[in-house]
Write a structure and sequence with these properties.
The protein is α+β, with helices and mostly antiparallel strands. 18% of the residues lie in helices and 42% in strands. The longest helix is centred in the N-terminal third of the chain and has 19 residues.
């Protein structure tokens, strides 16, 4: 009986060993899967075409990817940021097989640049999981997205696909980013699109990183003065992603509206002539702004100009009840430094706690229009020091003032108060004009005031 157990054990061991010998070891299966994917990626003669949309709602980046069997991939893209660093770049790639096949772009390139936007919160990716083949296409999904998972499709490229890049148009659009607020995330640059044959202007903002256009409003006229004088404004609220193709700007969702008896529909704008001789936004520096000429199918010629007009700032109006004010920390110079701590305000008014802006303020004591500071005196009592101004123009969100030599104090000020108020207010309103936008903070009227002459920014809170 003892021998029978030994024979049975030997038989079972032999049977299991024979069965195991017919199973491919995991490491061989992994290597085969990786090689198969590498063969697929390197097989197209002209590489792959990719229209990369990092998240739903964003715009599209056009790319060509050419993988070789030495672990390198040439990536051509229409991403012209960083002085065209990502327009044509060869970097290493890797294929892994963990829970599934993964395609990983290893060193810094276009995908990594997009991944880092908005402190890496944009939603772009440089690691992708293989999903399936669809005819000749390869389908991948973003690896790290928990929601809004990005699906990308690699399609075999044709020999002429490298002619589809609109690099000049992409790069020229970056020029509109100048003279734009930047504090606390800043604001996307704004453009005025003039439909010359229709006597209509469209105002929108352009997120150059996400490639998203946020329409604001349209009106009758070719200047903001004409548009506001006509008063017939159409609110435009539906954002759209965009891309650059066929020498122009392509909207992923057409912009449509009716104004002045015209039904307007814009799917694309052919961009033909780019100049940097547009109107200056500051009368002191006379720094020209970018301007694009082009045409829109079914609409006619169009001109795209840099602007700072923003309908959200139209709500900044004279307040007879309370002055606008803000903590003294929220005034910044053109290098993003607070004018308070270590700045000019601390130099003149080291105990200043707040900034005051009277705009149509109905008071028996204080001037209706004045700006200045709340300052604690030696007894810890808050005093108000103000310099008066006259409003020269309030056009939409544009406020032009002239500072006067009249000052107001609730109590005897220090000897340098007038000098300080003069120096600080001259900086804030250098050139005399600021543009105002509403930060859109729910439950609060918080406004940004931006000076295009020196890029100073300061914030005010309404009642």
């Amino acid at each position: 009986m003892r021998y029978l157990h030994i024979i049975l054990a030997a038989f079972l061991f032999y049977s299991c060993s024979e069965e195991d010998s017919n199973i491919t070891p995991p490491e061989q299966r992994t290597a085969a899967a990786i090689k198969d994917m590498a063969d697929k990626l390197t097989s197209p003669t002209n590489g792959w075409r990719l229209e990369y949309q990092p998240v739903s709602g964003s715009g599209v980046y056009f790319m060509l990817l050419d993988f070789n069997d030495n672990g390198q991939v040439r990536i051509q893209s229409d991403l012209t940021a960083n002085n065209r660093e990502f327009v044509d770049q060869t970097i290493p790639y890797r294929i892994d097989n963990a829970l599934s096949l993964e395609l990983i772009f290893e060193t810094y390139g276009a995908f990594h640049y997009l991944f880092e936007l908005e402190s890496s919160q944009f939603g772009a990716e440089f690691e992708f999981i293989f999903i399936e083949e669809d005819n000749d296409d390869l389908i991948f999904a973003s690896k790290s997205d928990l929601t809004d998972i990005t699906i990308i499709r690699l399609t075999p490229a044709s020999a002429s696909d490298d002619q589809l890049f609109a690099l000049d148009q992409s790069e020229n659009f970056q020029a509109f980013d100048g003279i734009t607020p930047v504090i606390f995330g800043g604001e996307p640059p704004k453009q005025q699109v003039i439909l010359n044959n229709k006597n209509i202007s469209i105002f929108w903002s352009v997120d150059l990183n996400k490639r998203v256009i946020q329409p604001d409003f349209a009106g009758i006229g070719t200047t903001i003065e004409e548009v506001l004088a006509n008063g017939n404004l159409v609110n435009l609220t539906l954002p759209t992603g965009y891309t650059f193709a066929n020498d122009g700007l392509q909207l992923l969702t057409p912009l449509t509206f009716t104004l002045n008896g015209e039904n307007i529909s814009i799917s694309s704008i052919e961009l033909t002539d780019f100049q940097t001789t547009g109107e200056s936004l500051c009368t002191l520096t006379m720094e020209n702004t970018p301007e694009y000429s082009g045409s829109i199918a079914g609409v006619g010629s169009a001109t795209i100009k840099k602007t700072l007009y923003d309908q959200s700032g139209f709500s900044f109006i004279p307040d007879a009840t309370l002055p606008y004010s803000v903590n003294v920390l929220f005034l910044f110079d053109g290098d993003f430094n607070s004018l308070s701590q270590g700045g000019i305000i601390e130099g003149y008014f080291p105990t200043a706690t707040g900034f005051a802006f009277n705009y149509g303020f109905d008071s028996e004591e204080e001037p209706a229009n004045a700006l200045g500071f709340f300052v604690e005196d030696e007894n810890g009592i808050t005093q108000t020091y103000l310099r008066e101004f006259e409003v020269q123009e309030a056009l939409g969100n544009k406020l032009a003032i002239t500072l006067s030599d009249n000052f107001y104090y609730t109590n005897a000020p220090p000897s340098n108060a007038e000098e300080g108020l003069t120096a600080i207010s001259n900086l804030l309103f250098e050139g005399g004009t600021v543009y105002i936008s509403d930060l859109g903070i729910e439950g609060s009227n918080v406004y940004r005031l931006f000076n295009p002459c020196n890029s100073y920014e300061f914030f005010l809170v309404g009642s």
